[in-house]
Amino acid sequence: MFKKIAIYGAGAIGGWIGARLAEKGAEVSVVARGATLEALRQGGLRLRQKGADAVEHESAQAVRASADPAELGVQDLVIVAVKAPGMADVAGRIGPLLGPKTVVLTAMNGVPWWFLQGFGGLIAGQRLESVDPGGAIARAIAPAHVIGCVVHASCALDAPGVIRHHFGQGLIIGEPAGGDSARVQALAGLLQEAGFEATVSPQIQKDVWYKLWGNMTVNPVSAFTGATADRILDDDLVRGFISAVMLEAREIGARIGIPIEQQPEDRHMVTRKLGAFTPSMLQDVRAGKPVEIDALVSAVRELGVLTQTPAPFTDALLGLARLHARVHGLYPE
To answer: For residues 218 and 108, what is the distance between their CA atoms, to the nearest angstrom?
Structure first.
């Protein structure tokens, strides 16, 4: 069912998934540019990971790589693994990869553009302007193509086309409208054969929201303070602030059918176990890359407006994160 597979976004996560699929014999193509394109053409996708012997091994998988999606043609499966600020560019170029039955698997952080498709109670079907201004993404990638994905793994780029897998194998996938389908089961089977711990969610938005519940606070706070996660949680006042944001997000989620029974402190305990790690948004700030404020915070605020849920702490978080990013040229005016 998925013979031809394209990776759109061969960064840490996209490269990891693509390399594992290619290793199992899938016909993998990659849309890439610049140094990444050159690296893939010369050495393929290189994956560094620890084997059963606890020793790190490196493998290289040959892939077809092009900067022009039209050269790759229609695919059975397109895995989109770009950060949210890059989705507008993807929407403008992905068309040649899509046929009537092509599945688009979105392995991305935060609230995706399809979040309210077939879900959301009284606001189901509405478009989120914060993540899809003007509806350009939805027009380019029709909802019928989409299967959502939540990644529970840690990977990094050592160099263009060179991916290091740290830990985690989890991929949760699901239909935006919920329920089961032949294609989602087939996709889960493909991913399991490639060694991923792939599971099918009966409602993928709930998995998206639960991961977001932890990401939406520590990430932006780290970006505008420069602090690692442990220092953020060690400050009583900052921890109290992000807990207040999380309580607002929990109420918003409850109003669209995603109740969370945990308290913020329960999630903080999980985060503490990761130690002094540098959140992805702070990594982007240091690298001078656009930050994912809209998918992580603006979308939550917009959902709060749509559900008439007051969220003053979320407003403050968004304002601070957005102002900092604009001052540094990492978020549009």
So the answer is: 17
Q: Would you say how long the chain is, in residues?
A: 333
Contacts of 274 (CB under 8 A, 6+ apart): 229
Of 263, 239, 208, 241, the closest CA to residue 319 belongs to 241
| pTM, 2 dp | 0.94
Catalytic residue set = 211
* Per-residue pLDDT reduced to its tens digit, 179-188: 999 999 999 9
175-233 tens-digit pLDDT: 999 999 999 999 999 999 999 999 999 999 999 999 999 899 999 999 999 999 999 99
Name the CATH superfamily for 4-202: NAD(P)-binding Rossmann-like Domain (3.40.50.720)
What are the residue ranges spanned by the domains of the chain? 4-202, 207-327
Residue 153: CB atoms within 10 A of its CB come to 18
* Helix (H) or strand (E) run with residue 197 in it: strand 197-200
